[in-house]
Amino acid sequence: MIERVNQWDRQISISIAMLTVFAALLGYLQITAGNLNNQYRAESSRYAVDAMRLRSTGEARSSFEAGHMLRLAELITQQRALAQSNEDTATVQKLDAIAQSLKSLSPVLNDPYASMKDGAVERYEVDAYLVDAVRAEQMRAAVTALDQAWDAKANTYVVHLTLIAVVLALLGLSQAMANVPRLMVLVVSALMTLLTIGWTASTYLQPLPVLSKPAIDAYATAYGAAYQSHREEALKGYDEALKQLPTYADAHYERGMTLWLLDSNEEALLALSSARENGYDAASVDSMESYLLLTVGRVADAEVSAQKWVEREPENRDALGALLAAQIAHDQLEPAQATLKKLQGSATEAIRKQTETGSGVDDATIGELEMAADTLHSVVLSSQGDESVEIKNVKLSEGTVAAARDMVRALRSQAMRAAFALTSEPVGAMSEIVVGTLDESEAFAAMDKIASTVQSIALQMKTDSVPADAHILVRIYQDGFENQALRYVTKWDGEPTGMKVLSVPIDIGAAYVLQTGMYEVEMYVNGVMQGERVRFEVTE
Amino acid sequence: MNEKFAKIFLATSLLLSVIGGAFTAWRMSVLDDAAGDAVNDAMHALITDASARIRSNNDTFERMRAYSDYRVALNAQEATLAEAKASTDPEAQQLYQEQAAADALPATVSKAYFDQRYALRDGSYNLRADQQSSYNKIVGRRSTDSGAFLTDSQESRDKTDRMVVFLIGYALVLLVATLSEEMAPVPATITAVIGIAISVGLIILTNLVEAGRLA
Question: Is the pTM higher than 0.90?
Answer without folding.
Answer: no
